[in-house]
Amino acid sequence: MPDRFEGLVEQFLNAGVSLAEAVQMVERGMIAGALGRNGGNQCAAARDLKMHRNTLQRKMVEFDMTTARPRSRRKPMGRAGNPRKKRSGTA
Q1: For residues 45 and 20, what is the distance between their CA atoms, to the nearest angstrom?
Q2: DSSP state of 85
Q3: pLDDT tens digits for the chain (91 residues)?
Q4: Is residue 27 part of a domain?
Q5: What is the total count of domains within the chain?
Q6: Domain range for residue 56?
Q7: Separation of alpha carbons 39 and 30, rounded Å
Q8: Do residues 45 and 31 make contact, with C-beta atoms less than 8 angstroms apart?
Q9: pTM given for the model
């Protein structure tokens, strides 16, 4: 493994890739690989990458790797369902 990594470093240097670009490429590739291995399960992918799920999600947004189906937002409890009828002032 160290031999292959050294070869990758050499390729980055020969191609004129900056350190910041190389870090982004490696991070993006590892995140995509972990998500692929775990069927898109972010919790399992974060566990494989040994990082917190929130950090994984932040990096996914940073790299524009959002999921295909966004979460639906819930309505506030006061507006959910039928509106309440006003009470009359008499008992």
Answers
A1: 23
A2: P
A3: 788 889 999 999 999 999 999 999 999 999 999 999 999 999 999 999 999 999 999 999 999 997 655 566 666 666 556 666 677 767 6
A4: no
A5: 1
A6: 38-65
A7: 14
A8: yes
A9: 0.69
